[in-house]
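Can you give me the bound-state structure? Components:
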Amino acid sequence: MAQMMSVQIQTGQLRSSPSFLARIVGEVAYARQVQVLEERTGWMRVAVPGSELIGWMHESALSRRRIVLQAGDADVERAATTGEIALAGKGFNEQVEREFRSRNPDLDFRKIDQMQASRPTMAQVHQFALEGRLRLAE
Amino acid sequence: MLHFSRRNFMAWSGKAFLSAACASPLLAGLLSGCKTGDVVGELGRATGVLDDEQARSVARVATALGRSFEDITPEQEFYIGRTVGATILGSYSPYTDPKATSYVNLVGTLVSLSSDMPETFGGYHFMILDSDEINAFAAPGGLIFVTRGMLRCCTTEDAVAAVLAHEIGHIQHQHGIQTIQRARVTSAFTILAAEGARTLGGRDLVQLTEIFEESVSDVINTLAVNGYSRNAEREADRAAVMILDRAGYDSAALVSMLEVMETKLTPGGLDFARTHPAPASRIRDIRPILPLVRASNPALRQERFLAALHRI
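Here's the bound-state model for the whole set.
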């Protein structure tokens, strides 16, 4: 049977070959299930069911546990008692953070938002690696 | 501010503990880690959602399995990390020099791609803290903070990469969330079972937020007060050497950085001196795992290091 895995990061990127330098051929949303076609050290070539998308993802972006986006009562019970599946948006989530913030109004989350909003592009990191005679992970 | 405001932090974590204990004596029981199964059943009943039979059943399962950090999803780790980060920024101000910040983010992102966990839920992000203290923190999920004092221990870009690779090592091994007490994870799952598919509300939300607050407090306590175990520090150093080698940096720069740190650390200080093994002892553990041939440090790399951090 084909091995299925779930995207466990906010936005998964599919690449044309197993390298962070490779062209991005598509994006896959959090919790989406993908079918593993091939494995190569640290990377997996996957297909997205219901679409034409095929590409390489790093294994750290994928989980063997099924991540359920719209959980029903049975999913919740299974997740809470067996750990076979994981639930998106449950447990420590945005709602809990909001409640925490209302109890701790002195903490400033805007700086965290700013920190998370900025990240160098892969092209900038590539250029930086080339100039410094460094290697970007394959 | 010259050092982590331990007074503020202790006041905050004490408040978290007290609020939990006052709101629910059951949670106080959980905190001590005793009678987990019984307490979890009680907690389920106390939410008013489970009937007696369901509560007993959940308690049985929870007792049999327990839950551990491995059950915390990357998405939940992301929210814990954000709050750990916001708490750190309650005691430190960001150092806002754009050139230095952009440089540290380039080095950090580059080395993160050579780790075993290049992808996290929200990605890696790096911030310099405006403090003379020698310190660095990795909040779960990939938020990494490094003080100006720590960067002053670095004489090359390779040393900056070594500091960041060590912090990425902690994230890769999930050391932060491993410090969250198991009983908290188990009780969070019990609330989840009681909640079912509904949106969390009322008392459940309050209780889950208390468990969240205590979990964040566990992580902060480790990062800022008690430090990780000796073994976790060794793992992070080993990960750093591997990451640096893969990226083409000179992994011996980790040793050079620790040698400088040793001359700058104040014994009994509230920074790395408190939370990390002595540099000399870390060096003893690192030397045997360094590769025989050292990577070179080309002139251009040194030029850009000086250009970005000469005012640090």
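A couple of observations. Chain A touches chain B through 61 residues (CB under 8 Å). The two ends of chain A are 29 Å apart (CA to CA).
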